[in-house]
Design brief:
alpha/beta; Rossmann fold; 2 domains; nine-stranded mixed beta sheet; four-stranded mixed beta sheet; 13 strands; 35% helix; disordered N terminus
Length: 498
């Protein structure tokens, strides 16, 4: 889930749980509850138009202003009076009632209570409040709060602490396993700057399942090619260029690489959504993304794409990041199921709950049509996939290919504990030949690699090693032979420790 801006909607949504055209009663107070200190801070919203007026109208803030030596004034201004992003209203107007927004609001309501109104997660009330705030010349957080219905909003900071502790716990398993090592050895030649040895081209490919052509970045080896095809799938609100570094290393080693833009959930879609021109990605994208990849394979197979390259379309590799990694697992034969989604999505305190569940839970209504395996896929690299709620664990025995799962130990979007370690352990996937590599200290976004970076992609060599081994390519490294590590950041195969 990259370049994601839903945190803004989640924050605002946590303050707004009802859907009225106009508030029956304007919000009067914002209360910060701190049970661990057995105290609370009350902010009287009133009619204050400046930070100093807001402090003077709230005795608790006056006390804090005094205790802080006057430093609170600037903080209040930044929080309450800074203008809201201009795209906020358009985003909410285009997202009202959409599954992704609803799930973000449900998650936010665990942290913020709006007292005196009935719960609602459509997003309609947020938009109405922002419209009224703009009309009154106050398009900021303070103006927005004043337009909400209800008696008071309260934020329980102990719940915020619980969420932080849950994230820490969901990372701890990965940290411990990675620390136990050993780290993979390094092949120096794979860490040297790359010399361009491929042809880069962007093409448009018409497909039957979408109204518009797919934008596809192609990378074709200029010299000796091995006849193998790799498709790289990007994550939510991202684009092929964010993973071009992966493609560069693979193309330099003889692989032909295709990087499609998934038009229903790419960066362009995000921009259109923020402008109010398109809604958030719907659950249908769970099915459409794998179909994008299969359409590329069909085009290569029929000669519409990369004609005359002698590519083997019966043994293809797919690589993906975040939602793109989930896409690769679907293509490999992972069977989506609604059972865990129904059991866990409404449990806001589940110990494994993490940010990726917002996205996973938005897929529920499309889950029954999301089984779209492609038997041509024979090797998979899934980097940080949201998967805990999605797949039937029994489907791990019938996958068409072996899966290399890669996860960063400091990933706060898709933490390694629930989304990588537990699924691998529960399904005994390592006994079936699948592998889990942890990247020490990496977060959700640091594993990406852009065009022309000084150092080759951090996880590029391990991808190369896995594809070489699974597709029978006699390359410079193989996964079981090692040599796919990094000289600065440890990559650790923890498969046999699960």
């Amino acid at each position: 889930m990259t370049r994601c801006r839903t945190h803004l909607a989640a924050f605002l949504g946590g303050l707004a749980l009802s859907g009225f055209a106009a508030p029956a009663q304007a919000l009067e107070r914002l209360v910060l509850r701190m049970p661990f200190l057995e105290t609370s801070v009350t902010i009287n919203l009133g009619e204050a138009g400046s930070a100093s007026e807001l402090i003077r109208s709230s005795p608790d803030l006056e006390d804090l202003q005094s205790a802080s030596g006057g430093q609170l004034l600037d903080l209040i201004s930044k929080i309450f009076l800074a203008p809201l992003p201009v795209e906020t209203k358009a985003f909410l107007e285009g997202s009202t009632g959409q599954p992704l927004l609803e799930q973000a609001l449900i998650a936010a309501t665990d942290l913020v209570d709006l007292e005196g109104v009935d719960p609602d997660t459509s997003g309609r009330m947020l938009t109405d409040a922002l419209v009224r705030a703009e009309r009154n010349g106050q398009p900021n957080v303070l103006g927005f709060l004043r337009e909400l219905p209800g008696e008071q909003a309260s934020i329980d900071l102990s719940r915020v602490a619980d969420a932080a502790n849950r994230l820490k716990a969901n990372q701890e398993q990965g940290v411990a396993l990675a620390m136990a090592g050993p780290a993979a050895t390094v092949t120096p030649s794979l860490r040297a700057p790359l010399k361009p040895s491929w042809t880069r081209q962007v093409i448009r490919l018409s497909v039957t399942h979408r109204p518009q052509p797919l934008r596809v970045l192609t990378m074709v080896p200029s010299g000796s090619a091995n006849g193998r095809l790799v498709v790289i799938s990007h994550g939510l609100w991202d684009d092929p260029e964010s993973f071009e570094g992966w493609g560069e290393l693979l193309a330099a080693q003889g692989y032909t690489v295709l990087l499609p833009d998934h038009p229903g959930s790419d960066f362009s879609q995000q921009k259109a959504m923020l402008a109010g021109d398109r809604p958030p990605p719907g659950p249908e994208e769970l099915r459409l993304r794998p179909l994008d990849v299969s359409a590329l394979l069909d085009a290569v197979e029929s000669g519409r794409l990369l004609k005359g390259r002698g590519l083997n379309t019966e043994a293809v590799a797919v690589v993906g990041h975040s939602w793109g990694a989930t896409t690769t697992l679907q293509l490999a034969g992972g069977v989506p199921t609604e059972r865990k989604l129904k059991d866990r999505c409404n449990d806001l305190r589940h110990p494994e709950r993490n940010l990726s569940w917002v996205l996973q839970c938005s897929w529920l209504s499309g889950i029954n049509e999301a089984g779209v395996a492609d038997q041509r896929v024979k090797a998979v690299v899934a980097v940080s996939p949201p998967l805990r709620l999605l797949f039937d664990p029994s489907s791990s025995t019938s996958l068409s290919s072996k899966v290399l799962l890669i996860s960063g130990t400091r990933d706060w979007v898709v933490p390694s504990g629930p989304e990588a370690i537990s699924p691998m352990r529960d399904t005994k996937a390592a006994q079936l030949g699948h592998r889990l590599v942890l990247v020490k200290g990496a977060d959700h976004f640091s594993l990406r690699s852009f065009q022309g970076e000084d150092r080759p992609a951090l996880v590029g060599p391990v991808m190369l090693a896995w594809l070489n081994e699974q597709l029978g390519v006699n390359g410079v490294v193989s996964f079981s032979g090692g040599g796919w590590g990094d000289d600065q950041i440890d990559l650790v195969d923890v498969s046999n420790k699960l």
